[in-house]
Automatic annotation (TrEMBL):
InterPro entries: Ribosomal_L11_MeTrfase_PrmA, SAM-dependent_MTases_sf. GO terms for biological process: methylation. This is Putative nicotinamide N-methyase. SUPFAM superfamilies: S-adenosyl-L-methionine-dependent methyltransferases. The keyword Manganese does not apply. Pfam families: PrmA (PF06325). GO terms for molecular function: protein-lysine N-methyltransferase activity. Keywords: Methyltransferase, Transferase.
Amino acid sequence: MIDKRAFILDNTGLAQPPHVPEISLYLASEAHDLWLKTEDELEEIGLPPPFWAFAWAGGQGLARFVLEHPSIVEGKRVLDFASGSGIVGIAAMKAGAAEVIAADIDPFAEAAIALNAGVNGITLGFCGEDLIGRDEGWDVILAGDVFYDKAFAGALIPWFAALCDRGAVVLAGDPGRAYLPKERLQPVATYQVPVTRALEDSEVKRTTVWRFT
Ligand SMILES: C[S@@+](CC[C@H](N)C(=O)[O-])C[C@H]1O[C@@H](n2cnc3c(N)ncnc32)[C@H](O)[C@@H]1O
């Protein structure tokens, strides 16, 4: 079995996402083999696509928003859903959240999030279960870059709507992914987020932070 912590340290380097330079993360870059591996090559070594090794545009935008508007999370119980590297949850803790649970079903995400939280001097809770449809009383739900897959988005939209209806604040950062819902969303901020051309089709992605209404 792969030692996940060692794998992450071997295949990434500490870097600052360009739109959130006050946060450091273990990220893949041109300097690392992981950068160029195809999904088939990754599957051979037992690795799902390493979402946790990149700071996605939606997460960078949402993390920026939370740092600029700390009152959204101050003293609150926050869920960073589909946390990946943990970028959004780290921003929420830095902004004064009482507690952040980072949730991601990728088994490497837990190790990546622990490393990334540690390097930023904070602690995040972690949940590796699929939380879709559950409600554990969070005050704020943050979701960075989650509307890229039809089935995933289809499951998230009614869940986010239900959480919003019972009074939670639900915010999503999204750079115009294909399955972004068209209803019940109010834009609260827009950023130009530098991204990696090899992952995206451009060098900058216009990224909006949306609030469910
Ligand atoms: C594009 S990445 C975004 C990561 C991070 N939020 C960011 O913006 O950098 C999407 C993440 O969703 C996670 N994911 C997919 N299905 C999930 C589920 N049912 N529950 C929790 N996380 C999930 C993936 O493992 C991946 O880490």
